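Input/output pair, single chain:
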Amino acid sequence: MTLTPEISVVVPTHRRRALMLRTLAALRSQSVDHGRYEMIVVCDGCDDGSADAARALSRSGGPRLEVVEQPRAGCAGARNRGAMEAVAPLLMFLDDDMIAAPDLLEAHLRRHATDPGTVVLGAMLVHEDSPRSFVTEGLARWAEKRNSRLSDHLAGIPVTEMLGGHITLSRQTFDALGRFDAAFTAGGRFGGEDLDFGWRARSLGIPVVYEPRAIARQVWDKSFRSLCRDIREAGASDVRLARKHPEMAPSLTLGRSERLPPWERRALRATLARPRRVAAAFSPALVALDLAARIGAKGRRLEHLHAVCRAHLYALGMVDAGFERSVTETG
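Output:
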C-alpha cells in the first residue's frame, strides 16, 4: 500500500543542473523515512539537461521524485506549478542552491505539529563551498545576523524578512493566500513575489514564524553581473509592490531611504535625479567590483563600495519601473 507523503518539497530550477542535483542529494539523505516526503523539481526553461539528470536520479530509488518541465515562467510561476503537482498536505519551497541539513524536514514537520496554520521560515545560511569574495563575505555576515535577529523573535516576523527560498506552509494556507503572484517574476525577473506573499499572509492574519533549527545553506555562486541585475530588478519590483500594496511602501527600501547610510542615500538620490549621468559615473566602479569579485578579493572597503553601488542599482530599477515620488515616498 502506498502512503500519502506528509510533505512535498518543491524545487524550482533554471539552468543550474549541478547545483540542483546537489540540492536533491541532500534532500534524499534526510533523517525522516523516504515514504514521508516527495520531491518535485520544476525545470523552468531549462536547456542544460537538468530534467534528464533529475529523472535519472529518480530511477535510483529514494523518495518519490517528480520532474516537471515548462517554458520559462520565473520563480513564482515555477513554485505554483510545483504546488499543483504536490500531493502532501504540507508544502516546502526550497531554492535549487539550498543544501538541506539532514534533519531539515524533521524540523519543519515538528514545528508545524506545534504551530499548525503558520508560514514557517527556515534558516538560510551561506554554505562554506560558496566562492569566497567580498560579496560572499558580506552575505555570510548578513545571513548570520539575520538568523540571530529572527531567532530572538521567532513569531511576528516582519514582512520584509519573507524569503521564499526556504519556507513551509500547509496546502490549505497556500490556497487561501492565492499562491505566489507570478507577474512579479514573469519571464525570469527577480524579486517581489516573496514580500507580496508575506504581506498577503499578514493581511489575512496568518502567522509567519521562524524556525532556526530548520537549516539550509546556500551555495551562492552568482556572477557579479548577475547580482547587479538582481539588485536593479529588486528596485523595480519594490515599485510594483508599493503600487499593489501602498501601505507596504514604508517597509521597503524606497520608503525608508532616509535611514540609509549617508553615501548610499546620496547615491540613490543622485540616481533618481539624473539616472543616465550617474550611471555613467558609476560604471568604472562596477567594472572594478566585477574584477574584484572574480579574483576573490575581500575587504570592508570593497563591501562599502558595493553597498553604495547597490543603492545606485536599486535606484536605476526604480526608474525602470517608472517610480513616482509622490505615490510611494512616505516622508
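The first strand starts at residue 7 and ends at 13. The chain has two domains: 7-221, 225-328.
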